[in-house]
């Protein structure tokens, strides 16, 4: 097996590449399969090309999900596809039938690996953001409707995207105060934003009509569009959270763009073709956008080697302060 096009370098990435090669020995692929690193985010994702037969291998980071949580993710994305809700990539089992492999990582704890079928398609085009958010709203509503009625398997376990996960003593993506470019002025503005978010979301509540199983990362990079429709990929962050958070995740990293208000309107129109969307839920969509934005400030600070974190850095924090000022002014 040949490994090429590794970006980023470093000892950790070299070990992850070795884990990927070791994992492939347990799948039905030839020794000559080529393995290319596609991206590094929470996990490392590799393209496997076995003489033209392609698949995707995900090597998990340490400490993010235990095997039973990964299996629960796979249960939901499989149910969504088999129940005809939305296309998702099929899981490719290992030779012994395992969906989740645990593979030795030299010099560190073992890592978990999952293989998926390769799905053709490209991200939605940037010049069609407003138009594409209407079908995305409908897709999101179908997933929410499925989550509400689906009988989850015994042992199903995923984490929560709630206030403790965002701002508690051990926040999932770290403390936003440790983000890139955080100084006195940024702490003051974003501290006021955190207080406002806490108050509004506490009032909003987390009843079953507002809070449940969500994808939690429905951004454009996790949608593949081709002539057959839209496939939803990367359920690694799926868990229990506010349903409206899925809109916020969809505009991740582009929250500042002038098209976003029209994208929101399009998303709401699409959502309402499938499910009712009460006015109070619609009014809080910007609250969730700001919650997600503050979480991403923390994420960038704790993921300095991730491609997009290196690209955005402190500039994302400054942009968040601008949006926070606007949001806080409009919330009065």
Automatic annotation (TrEMBL):
<dbReference type="Pfam" id="PF01636">
    <property type="entry name" value="APH"/>
</dbReference>
<protein>
    <submittedName>
        <fullName>Phosphotransferase enzyme family protein</fullName>
    </submittedName>
</protein>
<feature type="domain" description="Aminoglycoside phosphotransferase">
    <location>
        <begin position="41"/>
        <end position="278"/>
    </location>
</feature>
<dbReference type="InterPro" id="IPR011009">
    <property type="entry name" value="Kinase-like_dom_sf"/>
</dbReference>
<comment type="similarity">
    <text>Belongs to the pseudomonas-type ThrB family.</text>
</comment>
<dbReference type="InterPro" id="IPR002575">
    <property type="entry name" value="Aminoglycoside_PTrfase"/>
</dbReference>
<dbReference type="InterPro" id="IPR050249">
    <property type="entry name" value="Pseudomonas-type_ThrB"/>
</dbReference>
């Amino acid at each position: 097996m040949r490994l090429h096009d590794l970006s980023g370098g470093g000892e950790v990435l070299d070990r992850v590449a070795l884990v990927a090669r070791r994992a492939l020995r347990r799948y039905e692929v030839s020794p000559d399969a080529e393995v290319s690193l596609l991206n590094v985010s929470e996990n490392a994702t590799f393209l496997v090309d076995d003489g033209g037969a392609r698949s995707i291998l995900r090597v998990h980071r340490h400490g993010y999900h235990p095997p039973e949580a990964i299996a629960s993710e796979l249960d939901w994305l499989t149910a969504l596809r088999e129940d005809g809700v939305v296309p998702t990539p099929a899981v490719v089992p290992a030779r012994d039938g395992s969906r989740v492999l645990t593979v030795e990582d030299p010099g560190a704890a073992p890592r978990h690996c999952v293989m998926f079928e390769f799905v053709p398609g490209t991200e939605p085009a940037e010049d069609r953001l407003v138009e594409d958010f209407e079908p995305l709203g409908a897709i999101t509503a179908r997933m929410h409707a499925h989550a509400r009625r689906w009988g989850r398997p015994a042992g199903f376990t995923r984490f929560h995207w709630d206030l403790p996960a965002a701002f508690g003593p051990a926040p999932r993506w770290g403390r936003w105060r440790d983000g890139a470019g955080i100084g006195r002025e940024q702490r003051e503005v974003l501290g006021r934003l955190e207080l406002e978010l806490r108050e509004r979301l506490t009032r909003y509540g987390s009843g079953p009509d507002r809070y449940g199983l969500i994808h939690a990362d429905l951004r454009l990079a996790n949608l593949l569009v081709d002539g057959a429709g839209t496939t939803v990929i990367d359920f690694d962050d799926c868990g229990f959270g506010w349903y409206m958070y899925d809109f916020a995740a969809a505009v991740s990293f582009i929250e500042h763009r002038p098209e976003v208000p029209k994208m929101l309107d399009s998303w709401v129109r699409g959502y309402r073709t499938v499910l009712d969307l009460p006015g109070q839920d619609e009014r809080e969509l910007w609250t969730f956008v700001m919650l997600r934005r503050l979480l991403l400030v923390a994420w960038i600070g704790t993921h300095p080697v991730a491609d997009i974190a290196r690209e955005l850095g402190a500039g994302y924090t400054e942009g968040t302060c601008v949006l926070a000022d606007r949001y806080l002014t409009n919330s009065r």
